[in-house]
Specification:
The protein has 510 residues and is α/β, with parallel strands linked by helices. It folds into two domains: 11-148 and 343-423 and 465-490, FAD/NAD(P)-binding domain; 151-220 and 227-340, FAD/NAD(P)-binding domain (3-Layer(bba) Sandwich), CATH 3.50.50. 29% of the residues lie in helices and 18% in strands. The chain has 14 helices and 21 strands. The strands form five sheets. Strands 1, 2, 3, 4, 5, 6, 17 and 18 form an eight-stranded mixed sheet that branches. A five-stranded parallel sheet has the order 7-16-8-9-12, with no helix packed on it. Helix 1 (23-34) packs parallel to helix 11 (396-416) and helix 11 (396-416) packs parallel to helix 14 (469-475). The protein is globular. 3-acetylpyridine adenine dinucleotide is lined by residues 62-64, 146, 152, 154, 167, 184-190, 192, 207, 209-210, 292, 315, 339-342, 451, 453.
Length: 510
């Protein structure tokens, strides 16, 4: 059965409303079904499911985490065809898994959540959506940490008379062959599409503000024999996944505690880029891992091609004909592609909690949540990949799945204890965040001397989890009701004792 696009013109009641039909929102939906909870809706503003893997369709788009790890743990895919799966393959995987687990009939496409309000008397969320009002006991925000394209605030952007688009909104109808194409940005997205478009364009001008560290990709095809073995011996595939898990954790350790990978990257740069002037332009002056590492074998070699120019002069203006840089040069272009990344960690706004505050108002001094999952003042509200749960070294699904398991347990706990709402205690949230901030201060993201979307937090800390995945997963393995205020429609039930300090971050490895 397919997701539907209509039928929400009047108030609709549901037990759980999930905002976003990307990887994590759909993973939440599947887990709810598996737990026997069928009364839920997945609200998706777009016309299809898939989140980032629907939107990012630029040439060469692929995951930069090994595919067996970048899968839902309960839905292994023996059919991955490459070590690093392509966007198309991941999108197909998401659709197939959702169909197999029967969540598509719960998905409402074209349903954008415009605002939400917690009604404390009714103990429910009331959501205004583009297709009507929805009342839900629980609200799960799964809107994705990188779902809002960031456009540069460069003067004159709108005046450009050629074709202009963001990498996440690729114009597949626009022919690039024979064109003078400019690309702003050299992050993970640009590093993937630049090698794909370079052979067809007449001239490629790459505007680089900061050079990125790169790491070998060594992608290869997965053979039919391997796929067959994975199908026949699922334990083998689990072993491969475990190896990939350890590999990525090892990378996480290395970037925080060693400079060995920097030496490897410099050696590769020397081998790939023979031109010393270009090599100087491409040499980072900050610690590796401070920004997201570009996992690529072809990005630097392509920049050596005769039709490519790497411009490091500051962009001062976009003119109708091209890009003006600080040295006074005008770079004439037919097409300008923005590989300028995303506004990290957007929030559903306005979403008003128990006291009528929005999250933006609450977080003016910085985002503050409990394990990136719950927020004081926002009863029965959960986030997937919320503040401080992004990752720079491994699969974000590991974090999302830990949160999903925790949320399912929370719902089951409330039902068992006949309560209607839960809200993390302010003191527990404060305690958690104090430790978190102390740990973050020591990470390469804050000490490494760079700026990136990792730091997109008003209080100057990072949006990433400052530790290994296992410390996060261990912390969320059990729903800790003692750190929550539980209520029923009639009265508030304080936790039996003061909030627990059973998970001091200081004791977790980082
Ligand atoms: O974005 P980015 P992305 N003028 O923010 C530059 C994930 N991802 O779309 O470094 C000039 O990394 C900016 O310069 P600087 C992955 O997590 C995953 O490439 O800020 N330049 C930078 O070079 C990744 O981290 C996969 O100085 C401007 C670039 O634009 C995240 O998505 C694949 C500018 C932005 O780089 C985002 O990657 C691809 C300006 N005004 C991406 N504004 C997977 O495989 C920005 N820049 C899962």
């Amino acid at each position: 059965m397919c997701p539907t696009t209509a039928g929400l013109s009047t108030t609709r009641e549901t037990r759980v409303a999930i905002i976003g039909a990307g990887f994590s929102g759909l993973g939440m939906a599947i887990r709810l079904r598996q737990a026997g909870i069928d009364d839920f809706l997945v609200l998706e503003r777009a016309a299809d499911i898939g989140g980032t893997w629907r939107d990012n369709s630029y040439p060469g788009c692929a995951v930069d985490v090994k595919a067996h790890l970048y899968s839902l743990s309960f839905a292994p895919n023996a059919d991955w065809t490459e070590t690093y799966a392509s966007q198309r393959e991941i999108w197909d995987y998401i659709k197939r898994v959702c169909a197999e687990h029967g969540v598509l009939p719960h998905v409402r496409l074209g349903a954008e959540v415009r605002s939400g309000l917690w009604d404390d008397a009714a103990q429910r969320w009331r959501l205004e959506t583009s297709t009507g009002v929805i009342e839900a006991q629980f609200l799960v925000s799964a809107i994705g940490p990188l779902s809002e394209p960031a456009l540069p605030e460069t003067p004159g952007l709108e005046s450009f008379e050629g074709r202009l688009f963001h990498s996440a909104q690729w114009d597949h109808n626009h022919e690039l062959s024979g064109k003078r194409v400019g690309v702003i940005g050299t992050g993970s997205s640009a590093a993937q599409f630049i090698p794909k478009i370079q052979p067809t364009v007449e001239k490629l001008t790459v505007f680089q503000r900061t050079p990125h560290w790169t790491f070998p990709r060594m992608n290869r095809r997965i053979t039919k024999l391997e796929q067959m073995l994975y199908r026949r011996f699922p334990a083998l595939q689990r072993a491969v996944r475990a190896r990939q898990y350890l590999y990525h954790e090892f990378l996480g350790f290395m970037v925080q505690h060693s400079r060995l990978l920097e030496a490897v990257a410099m050696l590769r740069l020397r081998l790939h880029v023979r031109d010393p002037e270009l090599r100087t332009k491409l040499t980072p002056d900050y610690r590796m891992g401070c920004k997201r590492i570009v996992v690529s074998d072809d990005f630097h070699p392509v920049l050596m091609q005769p039709n490519v120019d790497v411009v490091t002069e500051k962009i001062v203006e976009i003119s109708p004909r091209g890009v003006l840089t600080a040295d006074g040069a005008e770079h004439a272009l037919d097409t300008l592609i923005l590989g300028t990344g995303f506004r990290a960690m957007p929030v559903v706004d306005p979403l008003r909690g128990r006291d009528g505050d929005t999250l933006t108002e609450r977080w003016r001094e910085g985002r503050c949540a409990y394990y990136g999952t719950t927020v004081a003042g926002f009863p029965n509200y959960f986030m997937l990949v919320g503040p401080n749960t992004a990752t720079g070294h491994t699969s974000v699904l590991l974090y999302a799945e830990a949160q999903i398991g925790y949320i399912v347990q929370a719902l089951q706990y409330l039902e068992r204890h006949q309560k209607t709402s839960l809200e993390v205690a302010e003191s527990a949230q404060r305690f958690f965040n104090d430790h978190l901030r102390r740990k973050l201060k020591r990470t390469v993201w804050l000490t490494g001397g760079c700026n990136s979307w990792y730091l997109n937090d008003p209080n100057g800390t990072s949006v990433l989890w400052p530790g290994y995945t296992w410390s996060f997963r261990k912390a969320l393995r059990r729903f800790d009701a003692e750190n929550y205020v539980l209520r029923d429609a009639a009265r508030c039930v304080q936790p039996g004792h003061a909030h627990s300090t059973r998970r001091p971050l200081a004791s977790q490895s980082s």
